[in-house]
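Bumping with the actual sequence this time:
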Amino acid sequence: MRNKYHIAFPQENVDHLHQNEVYFHYWKEDPDEKVKLRFHDYAEIYKEPGLYEQLFYERLKCTSPAKISTLLKNALSQSQENISELRVLDFGAGNGMMGEELKTHGVSRLVGIDIVPEAKEATLRDRPGLYDNYYICDFENIDNKTNQNIKAWNCNCLVTVAALGFGDIPPKAFINAFNMIDNNGWIAFNIKETFLDTKDNTGFSKIIKELIFSEYLDIYNLERYRHRVSVGGVHLYYYAIVGRKNTNVPGDFFST
């Protein structure tokens, strides 16, 4: 049985903070021993069994793994393909929440990728045997041996959930993962709604919009949904995107 924690959110208004700057306090028994962490202090959160789940799924009602996996399954049904035939690269796999959801839908081959060692440790601790393999590596600067090992899985699906746009996964790393997927393979990810706003001209936003509306990806589903609630109870909306890869993104994509 996983540990239960006391979780407290800031009393002051934190709406002015960026989503990755919001923080919380937690403690086990003695409030004098409470610890302050940002929501994106993943390494520290993963060290505490069940804290990630209690924070994001119980308290903040995160729906993204269930949403993305369901839309992926629906897209496959449009093509009369079976989700059990997918060889999935779970990019930014964290402690295995998305992988666990995919398993419930019948995915049999699952490879995890993250840059945070504590993510793999948490997955092995809390969800042993979930992934066929789990690699800790930097996809912006992946070494040749790791690159070849991952390619050997011949993945035909990439999933990335709640990890894009906050510095967790840089655009180049995401494109490198995209290029590792077989042509005609499936791509499923989500993105905060503001990143698709026409007023957002940041580098990351431009690259994602160019990818979505490019010849490299055929969109099967683009849906706005409630990702979770904020600490103040405000609904945070994301876009879920499911498509089919046509071909690799060229190296000069970032200079366009």
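The tokens above came from a reply further down the thread. The chain is about 30% helix and 25% strand.
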